[in-house]
Each structure stands twice: as structure tokens, then as C-alpha cells.
């Protein structure tokens, strides 16, 4: 009798263990399914891009008829915004997709995987990857400007009847995840942190009738207010670049390097000439207009001391990529190192108004074509 009881007890325990194991397996599969469902867009997007069929390429790429063109990068590809359509092309010049955006005053902001198109002074915005539209949404108030993050998030600054203007942040599915507005400040510029967890805003306020410009940092998971606020003087902020743990801000009156975590200013310099263009990228570089109508390109070190300068003639665009600076005149493309020594010079066969540098190639925007130039 005791032996039978022991056997029955053993069988009960074994069945119980099996039930618990089955439940654990079901819970595990349920969690995996939930994770996939919540992140399906991120998982499938690279697979869609990899499987995408494209047409035949070749440069120069003939442009469609338009009153205006905006050329921008999309990873190893490039994109083109016209007054009616948005196009993406691969590095061989083959068109990947074309989409009629339907916006009255379209503007573009892109990163390596996403392109944000918005209607300046309208209400609609659209997010694309290279193969097509991901989402479109509309704001209640008209849009001043918008900025795509390093990943899938988008910042949109709109007008407001209650505030100077409002900052909204949307995730990759078009859902609003953050909002900030102030009756004291007008938002002029925004840039995301490299991991997209924070956003930095250049704002304009007033004190005793004098304009004041400040930088603010917001953590997007915390809607309680800014993490820090730093005064930058009374000159408009032209650009913000975030790299590593530092922010590089260029204003009409000078440049600043700030600690991204604390907002502390680690270096600053004043300008005595007017800012003409800001090449962007990793280098601290600014192009100025001189009194004779020429341009002076200046490179600064990490303490914002000028380390090199070069006069440029008839320049239409300057870009910084890595440790090099690229200068485009109408029919010449010049490559400088970070000491502004000439590395190479390419004679061009046509006039070009804009350029992108992607990898070892430059993409040049002409009157009715996009041309590709090998920089090696």
C-alpha cells in the first residue's frame, strides 16, 4: 500500500512538473510574440529594403521638371524632393521609388534610413524609408520646421495660439511621445542626441527688451521640463551639431562647445565676420564672408582656436565629412584636409548648385541632372 502511494505521488509530481514546464514554454512564446508585435516595424524595415527591386542605373540622372529641387542623403542612397514628388535612388543612380507628396510648400530632413517630408506653413508630415512611405500624420497648428532624428523619431515645431510655438516628438509609427511649449521662448533649432533619448533646443526669449538665446536639453522619457538651460548671448543660433558628449553651436556672433550632459560651456569664440555657411560634420568649421565679397573658410580645434583658414572664390557649397572639407564652385570640386591643405581638385563639365558627400563619392545637383564624382 505504501509503495502504491509512493508511485502515485511520484506520478502526480511528474505531471505537475510537465504542466509547469508547458506553462513556462507558453509564457516564453507569448513574450517572444509580444516583442515581435511591438517591434515589427523595426524588424521588417531592413528586410524590406534588402529585398527591394530597383531599376537600371547610370549617371548623370535626368531630373524631372520642377521649379525647385532638394538633394539629400539616405544612407548609401540619395533622395530628391521636388515641388510635387519625392524620389529615392541607389548609389548607381537607379530610381528606387517615387511618391507624390501633395504638399504645398515641401521641406526635407533625412538621416541614414529615414526621410521626413513636411509642409512648411501647412499641417502634414510624412516619413519615408528608401522603399516608400511609412506613415503620414497632421498637426493641429501649422508647421514652422521639422527635424528627423538619428533613428526613426521626428521633431516638429508648430505655431501656437497659446504659446510662442510648440515642440512635438513622434515615434517611428507616427505616435506623439513628447510635447513642450513655453510662453517665454520661441524655438529656433532642434537636434537629437545620438541615441535619440534626448533633444536639444535653441530658443529665443527676451529680457528688458533685449533678445536672449539659450540652449535647453529635454529627456524624451521625462515631461517634467528641461534637464539644463544654458545662456548663449544675444545672437541667433544658426546651427547645432551633437557628437559624442559635446554640442557644437554656431551663432551669428560666435561658436560654443558645450557638455551635452551638463550644459556647461567648455570653449567659445567670437566672430568678427559674417557667417556665410556652416559645413557641418565632425569638424568645427565655419565659412565667413569677407569685406571684398570673397569667402574665408576657417577650421577650429577643440578649444575653438582657429587652426587653419583658406580664401575661396565663387564657392556655392561647402561640406565637411570625416576629416575633410569639400568645396564646390560652379565647375570645380576641391577637397581639403583638416589643415585646409588641398588634397585633390576635380574639374567639372557643368555648373552645379549643391552637393552631397556619401562614402568616397560626391553627388552634384545641376540644372537638370544629378552627377556622381569619384573622390578616390
Explain what you see:
The longest helix has 37 residues, at 2-38. This protein has a four-stranded antiparallel β-sheet, with no helix packed on it. Strands 2-3-4-5 form a four-stranded antiparallel β-sheet, with no helix packed on it. A four-stranded antiparallel β-sheet has the order 6-7-8-9, with no helix packed on it. It has two helices and 32 strands. The protein has 376 residues and is mostly beta strands. The protein has a domain at 276-376: Thrombin, subunit H, CATH 2.40.10. The chain has helices spanning 2-38, 40-50, and strands spanning 61-62, 69-74, 77-82, 85-89, 95-100, 106-110, 115-119, 124-129, 132-138, 143-148, 154-159, 165-170, 176-181, 186-192, 198-207, 210-219, 228-233, 237-243, 246-251, 254-259, 265-270, 274-277, 284-289, 295-300, 306-312, 315-321, 324-329, 332-336, 342-347, 352-358, 361-366, 369-374. Helices cover 13% and strands 52% of the residues.
Quick rundown:
This protein has 376 residues and is mostly beta strands. It is 13% helix and 52% strand. The strands form eight sheets. It has a four-stranded antiparallel beta sheet, with no helix packed on it. A four-stranded antiparallel beta sheet has the order 2-3-4-5, with no helix packed on it. A four-stranded antiparallel beta sheet has the order 6-7-8-9, with no helix packed on it.
Amino acid at each position: 500500500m505504501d509503495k502504491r502511494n509512493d508511485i502515485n505521488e511520484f506520478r502526480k509530481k511528474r505531471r505537475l512538473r510537465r504542466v509547469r514546464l508547458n506553462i513556462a514554454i507558453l509564457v516564453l512564446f507569448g513574450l517572444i510574440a509580444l516583442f515581435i508585435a511591438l517591434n515589427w516595424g523595426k524588424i521588417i524595415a531592413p528586410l524590406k529594403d534588402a529585398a527591394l527591386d530597383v531599376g537600371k542605373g547610370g549617371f548623370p540622372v535626368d531630373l524631372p521638371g520642377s521649379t525647385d529641387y532638394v538633394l539629400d542623403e539616405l544612407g548609401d542612397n540619395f533622395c530628391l524632393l521636388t515641388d510635387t514628388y519625392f524620389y529615392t535612388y541607389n548609389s548607381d543612380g537607379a530610381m528606387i521609388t517615387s511618391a507624390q507628396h501633395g504638399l504645398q510648400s515641401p521641406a526635407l530632413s533625412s538621416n541614414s534610413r529615414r526621410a521626413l517630408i513636411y509642409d512648411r506653413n501647412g499641417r502634414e508630415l510624412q516619413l519615408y524609408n528608401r522603399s516608400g512611405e511609412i506613415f503620414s500624420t497632421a498637426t493641429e497648428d501649422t508647421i514652422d520646421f521639422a527635424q528627423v532624428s538619428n533613428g526613426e523619431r521626428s521633431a516638429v515645431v508648430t505655431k501656437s495660439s497659446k504659446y510662442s510655438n510648440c515642440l512635438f516628438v513622434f515615434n517611428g509609427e507616427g505616435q506623439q511621445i513628447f510635447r513642450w511649449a513655453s510662453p517665454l521662448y520661441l524655438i529656433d533649432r532642434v537636434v537629437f542626441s545620438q541615441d535619440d533619448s534626448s533633444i536639444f533646443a535653441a530658443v529665443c526669449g527676451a529680457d528688458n527688451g533685449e533678445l536672449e538665446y539659450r540652449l535647453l536639453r529635454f529627456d524624451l522619457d521625462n515631461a517634467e521640463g528641461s534637464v539644463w538651460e544654458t545662456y548663449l548671448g544675444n545672437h541667433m543660433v544658426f546651427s547645432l551639431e551633437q557628437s559624442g558628449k559635446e554640442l557644437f553651436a554656431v551663432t551669428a556672433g560666435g561658436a560654443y562647445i558645450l557638455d551635452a550632459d551638463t550644459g556647461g560651456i567648455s570653449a567659445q569664440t567670437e566672430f568678427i565676420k559674417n557667417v556665410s555657411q556652416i559645413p557641418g560634420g565632425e569638424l568645427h568649421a565655419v565659412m565667413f564672408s569677407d569685406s571684398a565679397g570673397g569667402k574665408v573658410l576657417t577650421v577650429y580645434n577643440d578649444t575653438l582656436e582657429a587652426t587653419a583658414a583658406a580664401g575661396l572664390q565663387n564657392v556655392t557649397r561647402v561640406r565637411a565629412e570625416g576629416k575633410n572639407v569639400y568645396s564646390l564652385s560652379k565647375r570645380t570640386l576641391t577637397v581639403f584636409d583638416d589643415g585646409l591643405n588641398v588634397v585633390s581638385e576635380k574639374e567639372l563639365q557643368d555648373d552645379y548648385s549643391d552637393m552631397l558627400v556619401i562614402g568616397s563619392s560626391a553627388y552634384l545637383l545641376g540644372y537638370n541632372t544629378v552627377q556622381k564624382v569619384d573622390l578616390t
